UniProtKB/TrEMBL annotation:
Pfam families: FGGY_C, FGGY_N. GO terms for molecular function: kinase activity. InterPro entries: ATPase_NBD (IPR043129), FGGY_C (IPR018485), FGGY_Carb_Kinase (IPR050406), FGGY_N (IPR018484). GO terms for biological process: carbohydrate metabolic process. It comes from the Bacteria. The lineage of its organism: Bacteria, Bacillati, Bacillota, Bacilli, Lactobacillales. This is ATPase. The keyword Nucleus does not apply. Belongs to the FGGY kinase family. Residues 16-241 form the Carbohydrate kinase FGGY N-terminal domain. Keywords: Kinase, Transferase. PANTHER family: SUGAR KINASE, XYLULOSE KINASE.
Length: 535
């Protein structure tokens, strides 16, 4: 689309805004009616460990959103010579799970508790036993119940409990709602009725330690919507909150908010049965849309849904690329110390390319990229750890390959349950995320690790905010066709893809690595217990 045509859509309010609050960046994307990106922007932030809780300041949520919107709006004015004053629709996405608790006066009762916290083990175990359904520590209901078990004072004042994307949408629209994919990380979902499991709500409410409170669990959770529904419209207060300059008009359609898992499925066109996708970043997760139920309960497999409510088996890991980023930062500092100027992108490319020259088993080197605890491997407190023996082959290629191997290791352990025990059939597995910005090597390592073909789509680089914008466009249609058909027929008409299949030597090498990795997990656990955090 040329500048003149784009300007007409911007001026007439036909564009759509997608915002995603990710773990390291708040990203905004503006698209036209052909789902093409007209402008994008971002704001960098980082979670903080305060009093043993991983959190983000709630004020920074709005600082980040407003900064990203202001920069996007300025980009629009500079590129298309017209101001962004109205939107056809918009949608909010964010990292899933966690705990935002408010009282009847809309006051935040405790700091935001993110998905990264491993502080609800007792609650998660008890609820899993009560429901006969896996409740991960990250889920909102686990946080609610753990707060009850801890006898925290704020629990008596609960009036509304939700997730980050739902909270932002509430402030923009006045509606206490969330999308079904996000809701499936709050409380177990009935995929046929498209709401929370009523039998589980009743079981929870009947617990003696819960009955003492005046609130009812069903009343304090956000209402569940599905893709194609509308979560109200942008209010005057919401418009000023998003754009303090006052230029943005109210009235835009708002889509049901979704978690980053849901927008990842949309961005990779992976919402039909027997499709799947993998998103990698600070954390990582795989999503397999099921064509039949799993045979049994697995504590390492989350049962969630697509944005339209179909059941999905999810493998979620808390740690992925953070340790790689730290090592790249160290290498860049070294380069600067010896007077070499190199961009961060070029440095990633250099190190990734070097990894392609490694031994298949990474020379016997082992790495644990745990900045936080990891549920799948039963690690309560993370400590990044690099291990080698006197016979390990220590060189740059092997060292960096073991960083990539470690980033995918917990994901492989979880995926092996689906592929080897449950025999889940997936016709296509599409990957997205920054690790695939350097072509081939990250994609090939993942294919070898999981021993399945991995596909990269050209549009996958747009990521979650683009997927959220697409969902907002879908909300404009009020779901006249299924989400799967909408994506196939309207959005992904001519997808550009590249697929890499597993390499036999790489598969064998990764299996050798993962064997050593599992054997060394007690060392990682001990490091978490004995090496204290720096004050």
């Amino acid at each position: 689309m040329n500048i003149s045509e784009a300007a007409k859509q911007i001026k007439s309010g036909q564009t759509t805004l997608g915002i995603e609050l990710g773990s390291t960046r708040i990203k905004a994307v503006l698209i036209n009616d052909q789902y093409e990106v007209l402008s994008s922007s971002s704001y960098t932030w980082e979670n903080q460990l305060k009093d043993g809780i991983w959190t983000y300041p709630i004020d920074q949520v709005w600082e980040g959103i407003q900064t990203a919107y202001r920069e996007l709006s300025a980009n629009v004015s500079g590129t298309y010579h017209t101001s962004l004053t109205k939107l056809g629709s918009l949608g909010i996405s964010a990292m899933m799970h966690g705990y935002l608790a408010f009282d009847k006066n809309n006051k935040l009762l405790v700091p935001f508790r993110t998905w990264r916290n491993n502080i609800t083990e007792e609650a998660a175990d008890k609820l899993t036993e009560l429901f006969g359904f896996n409740i991960p520590q990250r889920w909102t209901i686990a946080h609610i119940y753990q707060s009850i078990l801890n006898k925290e004072e704020h629990v008596n004042q609960l009036d509304f409990v939700t997730t980050l994307d739902s909270y932002v949408t509430w402030k923009l629209s006045g509606q206490k709602v969330t999308g079904i994919g996000d809701a499936s990380g709050i409380f177990p979902i009935d995929s046929e009725k498209h709401t929370y499991r009523q039998d589980f709500l009743e079981k929870f409410a009947a617990l003696p330690e819960v009955k003492q409170y005046s609130w009812h669990i069903e009343k304090i959770l956000p209402k569940v919507l599905v893709a194609g529904d509308q979560a109200g419209t942008l209010t005057e207060e919401g418009a000023k909150l998003l754009d303090p300059s006052g230029k943005l008009q109210a009235g835009s359609i708002i889509a049901p908010p979704e978690g980053d898992a849901g927008t990842g499925m949309v961005a990779t066109n992976s919402v039909r049965e027997r499709t799947g996708n993998i998103s990698v970043g600070t954390s990582a997760f795989s999503m397999n849309v099921l064509d039949k139920p799993l045979k049994k309960l697995h504590r390492d497999i989350d049962m969630v849904t697509t944005p339209s409510g179909e059941p999905v088996a999810m493998v979620h890991i808390n740690n992925c690329s953070s340790d790689i980023n730290a090592w790249v930062g160290l290498f860049k500092e070294f380069a600067q110390a010896i007077g070499v100027k190199i961009s961060t992108n070029d440095l990633y490319g250099t190190l990734f390319d070097r990894a392609a020259r490694s031994d298949p088993d990474a020379g016997g080197l082992i790495n644990y990229s745990y900045l936080s605890g990891e549920n799948i491997t039963k690690i309560k407190a993370g400590r990044p750890l690099f291990v080698r023996t006197q016979n390990s082959k220590m060189n740059l290629a092997n060292f960096f390959l073991t960083q990539l191997y470690a980033a995918f290791a917990p994901l492989k352990i979880g995926m092996d349950i689906l592929l080897k025990e449950e025999h889940v059939q997936t016709d296509v597995m599409i990957a997205q995320g920054g690790l695939f910005g350097t072509p081939v090597i990250g994609q090939q390592v993942l294919a070898n690790a999981l021993n399945i073909p991995i596909t990269i789509m050209s549009t996958a680089s747009e990521g979650g905010p683009w997927g959220m914008a697409v969902l907002a466009k879908y909300a404009e249609t009020k779901g006249q066709k299924s989400l799967a058909d909408f994506l196939d027929e309207d959005v992904f008409k001519k997808p550009e893809t590249m697929t890499l299949t597993p390499e036999p030597d790489g598969v064998k090498g990764y299996e050798e690595f993962i064997k050593r990795y599992k054997a060394g997990l007690p060392v990682e656990a001990l490091a978490g217990e004995d090496v204290e955090e720096r004050n």
